[in-house]
Amino acid sequence: MLSESSSFLKGMMLGSIFCALITMLGHIRIGHGDRRHQHKHHHLQAPNKEDILKISEDERMELSKSFRVYCIILVKPKDVSLWAAVRETWTKHCDKAEFFSSENVKVFESVNMETDDMWLMMRKAYKYAFDKYRDQYNWFFLARPTMFAIMENLKYFLLKKDPSQPFYLGHTIKSGDLEYVSVEGGIVLSIESMKRLNSLLGIPEKCPEQGGMIWKISEDKQLAVCLKYAGVFAENAEDSEGKDVFNTKSVGLFIKEAMSNHPNLVVEGCCSDMAVTFNGLTPNQMHVMMYGVYRLRAFGHIFHDALVFLPPNGSDND
């Protein structure tokens, strides 16, 4: 009797493991029979300054006006101090920024998603943004409240990218056969990617509301699964030297690591000069970043940027 019970338990465990593997493969190994899915991941780089200088001044001014970035920030009530810091700092530089909360919060204005499941919040936020703003913005940037973003650097990076093409970019991570953009570094979708994603949100077989039957998949992996069905693939964003511009850590942590690993090249070994995001910041660190990026100036030093991105109308940005 004991041996029969033991055999039964072993069978149950093996069966559960087998189901889990099938579930994972079902989500990750997608579309190998479709030629448009035979896409090799590649790295996207920012344009060279020399290329920008070749553009006439009138064309540069037109370019600066044509980039419209809508910022989505996913928040929960426990993030209220971070929420306040994000509102007071970098989101002023978005063409429009809206906060999407897991529940109604009286302290700050937000769009209530009525769920604390991060994947459902992300889905609903993308659908809301597409339905309401598809004709007003050509790029959509999603962030967490622990992040600091430099929108002008994002616009510069996107300068030669066509939003009518399916772009999905940020800091990429590989998990098995799935390559995805980490939400920790911020996620950028072009309007074409938003269209394709929106077309799949109502098809559970291709873009399910829940991850696997055995365990949940993180929201950024879920997004990659859905986009892969639509022929949209993750791209790693880098500067002209190959350094990441979407960062999943704070500046302080990068400097600390550089001091340990490259003590003679701390600055060079730290971060890109054209960094778009840093993550893992406290509210005070966000205000310090705002001071360093936008307010601190060396008297008498004139910057010769090839392009200027004008702030949105009515903005009180720095």
UniProtKB/TrEMBL annotation:
<keyword id="KW-1133">Transmembrane helix</keyword>
<dbReference type="GO" id="GO:0036344">
    <property type="term" value="P:platelet morphogenesis"/>
</dbReference>
<dbReference type="GO" id="GO:0016020">
    <property type="term" value="C:membrane"/>
</dbReference>
<protein>
    <submittedName>
        <fullName>C1GALT1-specific chaperone 1</fullName>
    </submittedName>
</protein>
<dbReference type="InterPro" id="IPR026050">
    <property type="entry name" value="C1GALT1/C1GALT1_chp1"/>
</dbReference>
<keyword id="KW-0812">Transmembrane</keyword>
<dbReference type="GO" id="GO:0006493">
    <property type="term" value="P:protein O-linked glycosylation"/>
</dbReference>
<dbReference type="GO" id="GO:0030168">
    <property type="term" value="P:platelet activation"/>
</dbReference>
<keyword id="KW-0472">Membrane</keyword>
<keyword id="KW-0735">Signal-anchor</keyword>
<comment type="similarity">
    <text>Belongs to the glycosyltransferase 31 family. Beta3-Gal-T subfamily.</text>
</comment>
<dbReference type="GO" id="GO:0016263">
    <property type="term" value="F:glycoprotein-N-acetylgalactosamine 3-beta-galactosyltransferase activity"/>
</dbReference>
